[in-house]
Amino acid sequence: MAGTGREFFTVKTVAQALGEFRPRHRTAVETVTLSAAAGRVPVDEVRAQQPLPGFDRSSVDGFAVRAQDTFGATDAIPAYLQIVGQVRMGAAADAAVSAETAVAVPTGGMLPTGADAVVMIEHTQEAMPGTIEVTRPVAPGEGIVRGDEDLAPGATIVRPGRPMRAQDVAMLAACGIVELAVHARPRVAIIATGDEIVAPETATLPPGHVRDALSVPIGALVTEAGGQPTASAIVPDDRDALQDTLQRAIGFSDLVVICAGSSVGGRDETAAAVDGLPHAEIWCHGLAIKPGKPTLLAHSDGIPIIGLPGNPRSALVVFRLIGMPLVRRVAGIIAQPRPGTVRARLARNLPSAAGRLDVVQVRLNGDRAEPLFGPSALLSVLTAADGYLIVPEDANGLSDGDPVDVFVYD
Amino acid sequence: MAGTGREFFTVKTVAQALGEFRPRHRTAVETVTLSAAAGRVPVDEVRAQQPLPGFDRSSVDGFAVRAQDTFGATDAIPAYLQIVGQVRMGAAADAAVSAETAVAVPTGGMLPTGADAVVMIEHTQEAMPGTIEVTRPVAPGEGIVRGDEDLAPGATIVRPGRPMRAQDVAMLAACGIVELAVHARPRVAIIATGDEIVAPETATLPPGHVRDALSVPIGALVTEAGGQPTASAIVPDDRDALQDTLQRAIGFSDLVVICAGSSVGGRDETAAAVDGLPHAEIWCHGLAIKPGKPTLLAHSDGIPIIGLPGNPRSALVVFRLIGMPLVRRVAGIIAQPRPGTVRARLARNLPSAAGRLDVVQVRLNGDRAEPLFGPSALLSVLTAADGYLIVPEDANGLSDGDPVDVFVYD
Questions:
Q1: What long-range pairs does B4-10 form, CB within 8 A, spacing at least 24?
Q2: Rounded to an integer, what distance in angstroms lies between the CA atom of residue B79 and that of residue B28?
Q3: What residues are paired with B103 via a beta bridge?
């Protein structure tokens, strides 16, 4: 009776899972408008057709001049220039600058013909009506943004495989690009398995039952990673029922998440059901991570399937570390984001077994990171945490006072 | 002619703006279902009505026993127990444990009456059909999650004023709480001003004009901060037209953003138009930040108004630092998130004036942070950046090789 069900035949490290588990499926291509483009992943490189800002502009409020007319100007010996016009915002500069003349120009205004610099208004004084004194010289190009300085024709605006940030959509807007081809958001099916699982809206629990605590938060993490949870189902610990549900899910999903039973029986049924899918490959059954060892990574015809541990806390830890990067990859993202951390000092000794990556929940108290312990069945350890730290595979634990990097939940 | 328009009469620091600019308006209260709850801000504290998991459960696959029956058990001298039943997942435990007996129980199964511990299956062997040998003692409580161990009645599930994270909605799901009262998402009106500004979809630019590069990315940052951009408009540099638009925007918005003209004239019109709104107070006109000095913070009857600098790059920098926290505050968020950073070494000297906070865009090259320079009119400096670092007010610059914390754009 003892034994076989608890063995993990194909245990991999987290680094292996992130680097080597590469199912080939990617989401379809769709077109989005600019206002919906932030966070989306371009399919193609987009290059500038025209220069930006498109015309030479003043970068200050002042006077457009020929720089040479200001050379040597000081407070004591200013250069005198005749004002021959004024540029209005949003209009062509209709006056031209010639020797010993100046044209008033606001920040962002078009540079008049003949001018090669703009003197800031602070470095001028009105000598008499229609004439200014310039009290500091300007070099050619000073006070000016060249017409192709922000973007030259042919320059790259956005790259494929990298989610667009606010500044990227700003540049697209500036260029007049108001729609573009992006990867569709990954549709993610979330399947909870277990004879003991009932829907969250169940008011009174039958004996021995618990509510599905995972489908909704996993859906939230899917959304955070740029995907969309499309369907969720609760399936009993029955191989045929699970395989049937999986088969249908594979048909309309880009990624499938199974919140697997935590008992040996539940895990066995999950692995067997996945193995029976078309063109299925179980890539690993067991991860060198704590909590989260009973994780299954597989694919069916290139569509990734992640079988999460049954304990809600372990499942959420594994989905953050492994599932969210998978959602991003399916969406065509090439380089995963570098998550930021907050520095802290460990508030107690933290033993850890070498060869296994430990994810330790912590509460932040000033600059001290206080580890939170408890069975991995407890969600409350996660809700009490401000973030987590990672004890890598090659470490034998950490000591009280050690500097640590905390990944903060926001 | 020189002077007055360029002066900033009420310059504040970034720390003052974040700590002391506190318009009183908050969004309304609405009810959301659980699947839409992640990231939303609860209005009230929510406490547990019932314990979780709700019944004593096994945390391992094994045998429920009386701990005392295993005391002293070893490989050499095991304890022999008679199997008197088996617990199924999702069912009441119908067998009871008495002296010298055991009941098989899966992970998550209900603990049978009479048992006070569960022996892991790895520490047992089948001695003969119906009898197991236990080869290691268990202490009372071992292998068990108590019925109120995850959550005791009366314990806090979520707190008001803090956005709900994945684990918080997991706990709500486990408790069967499928809707709750949250602050509505802040509706944010975005108004671009300037005679030179045309809509992004303008295919051919008239002379001296540029496309509105700010409304869309500011909208994206609003969304990222939990708000929703509700309306955008482009208004010429005309005080009455702007005041009219502002007045209407105030009527249906929780926060108003003005992407102000960058010329003196444009700034003057913005300040005057804001000042003319009902119960208006201009809190600051000028921030000690580079880039971004020409920032205006005001409110009309408690509804915050942020006037951004005209340069798109400055505007995006200021909106990240000041605008996003304002959106969160209006949504009822009490404690702002602690953003994580990536450590790097500065790749060159970085001069900076004391008394002013400098936001420096950087490209990350391995562990080196390479500052990007260029006029603040250039969006391309932002699109080329991987993140930014902050040189605080009290620093006189940083040196090549200094360790720096980089806030990464994702």
A1: B5/A61, B5/B264, B5/B265, B5/B267, B5/B268, B6/A61, B6/A121, B6/A122, B6/B264, B8/B285, B8/B286, B8/B293, B8/B294, B9/B285, B9/B286, B10/B282, B10/B283, B10/B284, B10/B285, B10/B286
A2: 64
A3: B64, B85
Span between the terminal Cα atoms of chain A, in Å = 45
Cis amide bond preceding B304, omega within 30:
no
Nearest chain A residue (CA) to B219: A35
Residue A295 dihedral angles phi and psi, to the nearest 5°: -105, 140
d(CA B214, CA A264): 55
DSSP state, B106?
-
Question: Cβ contacts (< 8 Å) between B196 and chain A: which residues?
Answer: 89-90, 108-109
Contact between B337 and A408 using a beta-carbon 8 Å cutoff: yes
Contacts (Cβ under 8 Å, ≥6 apart) of A90: B194, B195, B196, B197, B206, B208, B209
For chain A positions 356-375, those within 8 Å of chain B (CB to CB) are 364, 374-375
Question: What string of DSSP letters covers B242-258?
Answer: HHHHHHHHHHH-SEEEE
Cβ neighbours of residue B306 closer than 8 Å, sequence gap 6 or more: B255, B256, B257, B258, B295, B296, B297, B298, B318, B319, B322, B323, B326
Structure confidence at residue A267 as a pLDDT band (50, 70, 90): confident
DSSP annotation of B314: H
> Which residues, in sequence order, are CB contacts of B4 under 8 Å at separation 6+?
none
Q: Report the residue of chain B nearest A211, measured CA to CA.
A: B174
Cis bond upstream, residue B53 (ω within 30) = yes
Instruction: Report whether pLDDT(B6) > 60.
Output: no
Sign of CA dihedral B229, B235, B238, B243: negative
A239, burial (CB in 10 Å: exposed 0-12, middle 13-18, buried 19+) = middle
**Which pLDDT value is given to residue B5?**
45
pTM for the whole structure: 0.95
**3-state SS assignment for residue A321:** helix
Domains of chain B: 4-28+186-330 (3.40.980.10), 30-52+152-183 (3.90.105.10), 57-145 (2.170.190.11), 342-408 (2.40.340.10)
Measure in Å the smallest separation between the Cα of A137 and chain B Cα atoms. Answer: 17
Report A:51-80 residues touching B (Cβ under 8 A).
52-55, 57, 59, 61
ipTM for the assembly: 0.95
pLDDT over 80 (residue B263): no
Q: How far is CA B304 from the centre of its chain?
A: 20
DSSP-assigned states of every residue in A14-66: HHHHHHH------PPEEEEEGGG-TT--BSS-EE-SS-BSSS-EESSSEEEE-
Taking only the tens place, the pLDDT of each residue in A228-266 is: 999 889 999 899 999 999 999 999 999 999 997 767 777
Residues from chain B contacting residue A1 (CB–CB below 8 Å): 121, 124, 126
CA A53 to chain centre: 28
Q: Chain A contacts of B234, Cβ < 8 Å? A: none
Q: Which of A89, A171, A229 sits opposite B263 (nearest CB)?
A: A89
Give the SS3 label for residue A274.
helix
Contact B108/A170, CB-based, under 8 Å? no
A335 in contact with B at a CB cutoff of 8 Å? no
